[in-house]
Amino acid sequence: MPSSDPARRAVVTGWGAITPIGNDAETYWSNLLAGVPGGGPITSFDTTGHDVKIAAEVKGFDPLLTMDRKMARRMSRFIHFGVAAATEAVDRSGIDFASMSPEQRDRAAVVVNTGGGGMEQVIDGADTIREKGPGQVSPFAIPALSGSMAAAQVSMKYGLTGPVITQVAACASGVIAYQDALRLISSGECDVVLAGGAEAPLLAMAFAALANMTALSKRNDDPQGASRPFDRTRDGFVFGEGAGILVVESVEHAQARGATIAAEIVGAALTADAYHISAPEPTGRGATMAMTKAMRQAGLGPDEIDHIVAHGTSTPLNDVTETRAIKGAFGERAYKIPVSSPKSMVGHTLGAAGALSAIAAVGAIRDGWIAPTINYHEPDPECDLDYVPNVKRQSKVDTAMINGFGFGGQNAVAIFRRFAE
Fold first, then answer.
1. pTM tops 0.85
2. Would you say 346 and 21 are in contact if contact means Cβ atoms under 8 Å apart?
3. What is the Cα–Cα distance from 275 to 90, expressed in whole angstroms?
4. Mind listing the domains of the chain with CATH numbers?
5. Average pLDDT for residues 400-409, to the nearest whole number?
6. CB atoms near residue 138 (< 10 Å)
7. Cβ-count burial of 134 within 10 angstroms (0-12 exposed, 13-18 middle, 19+ buried)?
8. Is the pLDDT of residue 215 over 70?
9. So which residues are the catalytic ones?
10. DSSP conformational letter for 336
């Protein structure tokens, strides 16, 4: 059924987040508006010999707040994040899965995407084999490393027996979750979807590889100022970690239980560059097409998009290409749309990035404030849009677009709109 059918519209009723600038969604959102930087020296491993010594780490997180000690010990960090964010989202939404019948839980889905899953289990397992032998490798290593296990653990926590989905699409993964949520709701297959992404990639091997690729900022002496999307002096992204989950329901289901509706998902699209394993296609054609298709599905024109939460990684290639793509999709209107990048504060959280962008979009619609792009000091002639530099902006936002572009040329876009009867 089309999303315009009142019974099949997909609405947001709850959200949760674990981030480098706050371990709950409201703290994350308030710090995003305040321009609080999340970068700092790496504490998760010994950086001796590494060119990059900074990251945007989650701080003060305790997995035991949302799971028991045995489960926490057996699961990877990205699963800890995903379960914690989902728990907050469900609590905030007020939905009571325990009171639902088995048939109602059959119509509840979980979509938690990731870029890498529990990569630390592979590294730890290899170390164990080398140092102690294969007999000492944990039998829980496989479920701990599996990218699908965050979604599976959330489904088990709440007894949800509808589809359990994990899409691995690099840095586009988090945005894709909202296309799946919209599809599952609008098709009539599900009434509730817990949708988002989780990532905990801060491992020595990943840093070494990305540093050798020259993808990471090497501003080790300025970790809080290192992520500077769209600024002329940007030199790479700051690696981050975290998770974000939204509760998405059909409007009929949400209204029947008296839920507060924060926003509506009205369009989403995927395209591919078919160009390069890591570099974006220079003209931005694929990203432009994704934005255009998402607007077409939503029934919106370029003049009806009030805000873009950009992919905005702080890499030389991405920011120029995304700027070109926005111009391609919006024409002259591109210069009038506030564009901001949460990655200036939380770093690049890979598979969780789109989910954190979605919370920023919903927050802008709900509160009428647009988060800034911090560390923006020197304009780049090739990046000449309105990036909401350094300070939040008050503005009525009825529609917000989120972008997510991944290695391999994967482009994902979703559009959120203020809910109206």
1. yes
2. yes
3. 39
4. 6-256 (3.40.47.10), 268-417 (3.40.47.10)
5. 96
6. 14
7. exposed
8. yes
9. 171, 311, 348
10. G
